[in-house]
Amino acid sequence: MTDVKTAERTLADLQTKRGVLVAHGLELEEQRQQIAFAAHTGDQQARKRLDGINRDTVVHGSELASIDAAISEANTRLQAARRAEGIAADRQRACELRTVLEEFVECGRKLDGAMAVLVAESTEFHQALMRMHSLGCESPTSELVRVNSTSALFTALMRTPWQREFRHLAPGQKRTFAELVAGWSQVIERGIKQKLSEPEVESEAA
Length: 206
What we know:
single chain, 206 residues, mainly alpha, Helix Hairpins, 2 domains, 80% helix
């Protein structure tokens, strides 16, 4: 049981005891009301009983005051336990935050690395296309590559948390670089084979 739960249980027990005391006090007042007249008009038995009630009332008042003091202290301790628990929880969250922050920073560094790779690879991709053109390969054109490469970029970016910042593509517009170069390379390779008089190799599906 945590300190907070212990303090709450103690406070609840004291409040229960106070409830019993209050009920007893009401009972004493009711008894006093019933015999006060007789006790003050000559009934010795009632007088004796009233004296006992008065003594019980004094003890009851003292006991009620002490239980109220105990309840006040229990509330103070409960609040202190809750503050201590809150501080401990804050410390725990701070430790967890530090761990997640390290992950966050590392992800940022990796994103920069990924961007550097993207820039380098896209530059080589473009340079390879220019060399293909210089070697007499006219297709795919620079414009066709630009349009489809942009679609491939947007297709990937649509899977990031920042997807709303980029143009949304319909399913039929989505592309990947692997699919693009696979299609283009098949056409170019056929032209290469023709120029080299190499026989066409039948695909396994044929």
